[in-house]
Design the sequence.
C-alpha cells in the first residue's frame, strides 16, 4: 500500500490461476514419461516419473549409459550437445562392457571402455 506496512503484519492473497513450471529429472535425455508401477496411467495433466530415455541412456532418470554404450563417460545433455552414449568397439567377443575413468583419462579422453568376459 502507498501508506506503508505500519499496522499491517500480514497480507492475504487469493490465487485464481497458478502456473507451475519445472524441469525433468531425465537430464535432458528424454522427452516423454511413463507411469511408475502402481500409479494410474490416465490421470489428466499428470506427469509421470519414469523417463523414456534416448541417446542410449537407461535408468529411472536416464542416468546411465546402456550396456555396450559405455565408451565415454555418461553426461547430462545440454543445449546443442546431447552427450550421446558411445558404443563400445567390442569386435563381437564380449556381451558387455563397463566404463573406467582412469583408462579414459590415460587415453587422452579417447576411450574408457573395458570389455567384460572377452
Sequence:
Amino acid at each position: 500500500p502507498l501508506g506503508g506496512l505500519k499496522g499491517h503484519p500480514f497480507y492475504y492473497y487469493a490465487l485464481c490461476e497458478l502456473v507451475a513450471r519445472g524441469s525433468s529429472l531425465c537430464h535432458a535425455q528424454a522427452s516423454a514419461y511413463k507411469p511408475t508401477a502402481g500409479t494410474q496411467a490416465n490421470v489428466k495433466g499428470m506427469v509421470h516419473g519414469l523417463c523414456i530415455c534416448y541417446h542410449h541412456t537407461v535408468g529411472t532418470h536416464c542416468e546411465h549409459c546402456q550396456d555396450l554404450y559405455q565408451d565415454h563417460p555418461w553426461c547430462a545433455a545440454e543445449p546443442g550437445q546431447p552427450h550421446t552414449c558411445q558404443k563400445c568397439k567390442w569386435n563381437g567377443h564380449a556381451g558387455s562392457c563397463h566404463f573406467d575413468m582412469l583408462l579414459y583419462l590415460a587415453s587422452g579422453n579417447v576411450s574408457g571402455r573395458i570389455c567384460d568376459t572377452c
